[in-house]
Give the backbone structure.
Amino acid sequence: MRYNIRCLLGIALLLPSLSIGQSNTSIVSKPPTTPSREVTDTYFGTRIIDPYRWLEDLKSPEVSAWMKGQNDFTRTVLDRIPGRDQLRARISQLDNTGVVVNDLQSFGGRWFYLKRTPGDDNRKLYVREGPTGVERLLLNPETLTSNGVHYSIDYYQASPDGKLAAVGISPGGSENSVLHVLDAGSGRDLGEHIDRTQFGSVFWLPDNRSFFYNRLQKQSADAPRTSYYLNSRDTFTIWAQIPKEILRFSATDSRRLCPWRKATSPSFPRRRAPSTSLGWWLMESRMR
C-alpha cells in the first residue's frame, strides 16, 4: 500500500511537467528540413558517403536560409524556458563581481599579466615593476576597435629582459592573430605586424631582440579549407638595433637559416637557437 502511494505521488508530481512539455511542443514550430544529397569520396580504397556536403557552402542562399531557420527555431525553444532570463541575469551578475588575472610572467624585474575587471569585455595587458610596483596599462585592445570590429589579445610573451613584449591580437573573435611587438617601457607599438600567427608560440632568445614564432602558410584564393593549418613554419626574427629595421629568417632544416627578407645588417654570427619542437639546433647564416 505504501509503495502504491509513493507511485501515485510520483506520477502526480510528473504530470505538470509533462503537460508543460506537451503544450510547448504544440506551440513551437518545427526546425527546417535538411535534404540529404549524397556525395561520395574514396580515400585509400574506402568509400565515404557525405549526405550533407551542400551545407559547407556558406555563400549559398539556401544554406543561409537553412541556418536562419535553425536559429529561429532554437530561439523559440530557448525563449520559452521558464526563468531563463532571471538565470542569465544572475550569472552575469556573478561573472562581474571580481577581477580576473591570468598568464602572469616575470622577466627583467617586471611583472606582466592579463586582467579583466567587472564590466570589461576584453582582457587587457598590464605591467608593473615587481610585485609592489605601480600597475601600468600596457595594451588595451578595445582602443583598436574600428568600423564595429573589436580586437582581443590571444597571447603574449615578454622578452627575457622585460623590455619588449610580443603580443598576438585578433579581430572580431576570429583568433587569427597578428603578431605585434611592444616597448614594455612606453607601451609603444614598434610597428612591425606579422599576420598568420594564430599559434605564434613565441620563444625569445637570450639576446632579447630575436625570437622564434610559428606562422601559417599563405593561402591561395582557391585553396581548400582543409589546408589552412597545414605546413606551418617556425620563423626566426631579429629586431635590429636600427629603428624600424627587421631581419627575418625561415628555419627550413637543422643546418641552416634561409633569408626570408633581405635587409642591411652586420654579419649574422653562428649561434645556437632553440626550436619550439625539435630541441636545440645549430644554425649558421651570414648577411651582407
Q: What stands out?
A: Residues 1-27, 240-288 have pLDDT under 50 and may be disordered. Helices lie at 2-27, 61-79, 84-95. The chain has three domains: 31-80, 98-193, 204-288.
